[in-house]
Amino acid sequence: MRTTAKSNEAATALTRTRYQRLSPWYDQMQAMSEKRFMPWRSRLWSQVQGPQVLEVGVGTGKNMSFYPQGLHITAIDLTPGMLERARKRAADLNLNVDLRLGDAQDLEFPTASFDAVVATFVFCSVPDPVRGLSEIKRVVKPGGQVLLLEHMRAANQIVGALMDILNPLVVRMMGANINRRTVENVQKSGLVLEKVENLGMGGIFKLILARGA
Q1: For the segment 172-181, what is each residue's pLDDT rounded down to a tens digit?
Q2: How wide is the angle at C-alpha 40 spanned by C-alphas 43 and 118, nearest 5°?
Q3: Does the domain made of 9-211 have the CATH classification 3.40.50.150?
């Protein structure tokens, strides 16, 4: 069933504005982090099974070089500036990707449309993450893959409390929340949590595999 509660339009518009502002410099800002993230992106995409795959929050297309062959990939992003750069990257890589503007909280696809849904470093920014994950549950086929690469609040009490304190400043500057509890949000959405792999920084970075119910 499609999510019926209305998304927070003001929060969504603010998120779009922040990432539109950052889009011209986003890749340069993330260049150092990408040295760490690229092997994780590769590991995630090596597990994706299709053929129909949705990438939520494609951003500037950082995952594109890891797309497996033989998949039909639809990729959405909330921000026109990010999507413009994703289109250029797809052209440079000679990839046939169906790129569209779209909101994770209100996916414009029929129920059970995709064999797999992928998102990397997205649910730190979605204003209502449980709503977004519930939409993923709706559009993925029963038993289909949901693969997420995310950062989240540290389990360590002191570090977690510090992240809570710093979060409002980080959101204003970068658009991303650093204290999301994404594993719990996956469970709240109704997706079936299958595996959580700690990748680094004391479990702040995780690769999450869930399944459509």
Answers
A1: 888 899 999 9
A2: 70
A3: yes
